[in-house]
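Researcher: Going back to the complex we discussed earlier. I've cleaned up the inputs and rechecked each line, so this should be the final set. Can you rerun the prediction on the complete assembly and write out the structure?
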Amino acid sequence: MRRAIPLTILAVVGTVLIVSVFLPPLENLGEDFTLFFDIIAVFAFFLGGGNLVRIHFNKLWRKRKDWGFSIVTLFGFFFMLVIGLLKIGNPGGIGADPTAEGSWFQETFNYVINPLQSTMYALLAFFVASASYRAFRAKNREATLLLLAAFIILLGRTPFGVMLTAWVPESWSIAQIPNLAVWIMNSPNLAGQRAIIIGIGLGVVSMSLRLILGIERSYLGEDRG
Amino acid sequence: MKLSVFLFVLLLSISISAQDEPSDTDPAIIVPDSELVVVAPVTSLIAEDHKYDKGDHIDLSWVPSIDDQLLDGTVIGYKLYRSANGGEPVLVEEFPPGTNAFTDDGVYSDSTYSYFIAALSENYAAESNRTAPIAPEVEWLNLHRGWLFLIALIVGGSVLLFINAAKRGTKLFVRKIAGLEAVDDAVGRATEMGRPILFIPGIRDMDDVQTLAGLTILGRVARVIADYDTRIFMPTSRSLVMTAGRETVKAAYTAAGRPDKYNDDMVTYYTDEQFGYVAAVDGVMVREKPATVFLLGAFFAESLILAETGNSIGAIQIAGTARPAQLPFFIAACDFTLIGEELFAASAYLSGEPMQLGSLKGQDVGKAIAMLAILVGVFSATVGLAWDIEFFNDIVEYLSDVFSAR
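Model: Rerun complete. Updated structure for the full complex:
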């Protein structure tokens, strides 16, 4: 029974949503179900928050390894919760929008959370460099081809690339590095991406059918194989 | 006499003051005749029911004002008015010069509507004739999507056909997927090293099919982990994914006969914030140094940050996503990458169950249709463009119509 109910819900909702694509009066059902999902997700948020607090309190209480980080986590959690709920520093008072300019909640977001997020995002630049260094080593024929394509695209997007092949006559404009870079992006690259997207579409169809028919149950912990 | 003159002046002033305030229902602005920039109204205004909808659209088309066709800037735009059930007309939309069609999506099937358009100069509005009243109709079947229905029927039917064939015992060949072949080795490595396994299900919620695909793989992987008695840790960025992940891992441990080894701390929630989650997971990687990292689900800008951190700690990494933009990052930083459809095929592949493998074979029919359409399309477009042959150009147009049905 514990498995039958979710499987039945999945089968019914899945089938109705597929059919609704072809029946205009039902075409908004997808949006309705998304709304139901959002409502469920809001309730689940309490589970997530509760779990976070429980785990870190536990870690702190038992003085487990790296318990110091739990103090930071719990402080951040409760600090934001309190200043958000009590609208501390909010110019409009307790009834105002918690994200109003000047409120502690918004100020903390602007001057602590935002810079921290930007810092994490900025790491990407360094990781791209280290990943490129490994990926573009000419170990074999395919890797050499990749290196060559990357080199042309990088060069094609710099003024130096434009300057380098500016002398090539217009009748051979495809040989100009910027145009070659555009061709690589718009032809071989796009063709490859579309092939992957077609495969993804078919994969989604196949997996959805397995889920709707109840053949795929491993997400419920059942292994029929 | 004096009284009648007074009344005449009074009525005149009232009528002028009423006309001084142009409203949406009366676009005309009164100026001296000599200064009026008179323009011709639009003609042939036609209102038609929008086909294959639920009765909430009306298509309008018209021939622009002749003064607009001269392109001399006399016509500065158009205003479309709608009257519902014979009531007062209300402004629906304003258009720039040159517009000749519009679909009104603010209508209901239980009312009738008529329309007119005012062609505007800088100080004059020329109204068109009103359309005959029209009531939008509800259609029960969207025949615009006929081709989509047929293709879905063929692909879906093939999947079911191969599932049935597999049920009857037909042997089906499925090519080897290196990333999935490596799952047992990756879990074994973690066991030998005495280090945990990190499973990252992406940053989207349960309504994303990639997250669902990640969880189906988790079910298989957790079973192997439970068999090997290795530790698994799964940080999530969505509460529902945490709940579903716990159920999956718990069931896998129970199925492996080790329910006592499971605890809720194996699957935990950190934050919905993208980079907050990345910071937390990176911290876990650096501190715990997992031997194996699975990155299976929907990933965005965080893909490379996570994969590179995993790489830096020497973990064996198996990644998979259906987001083409993130695939190059995983290929560069991970040991094995499940590309697109392989992510969705992974659970069926790992199960080895004939019925599941049958569903993978069904996809091949879809691929065959796609390949045939691409070949015919490319050939027709090339020949049609090179020699301007109408027949081939028609094929390209027809294929575009078939595959862009909305």
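Model: Worth noting: Chain A has a mean pLDDT of 90.
Researcher: Good, that matches what I expected from the previous run.
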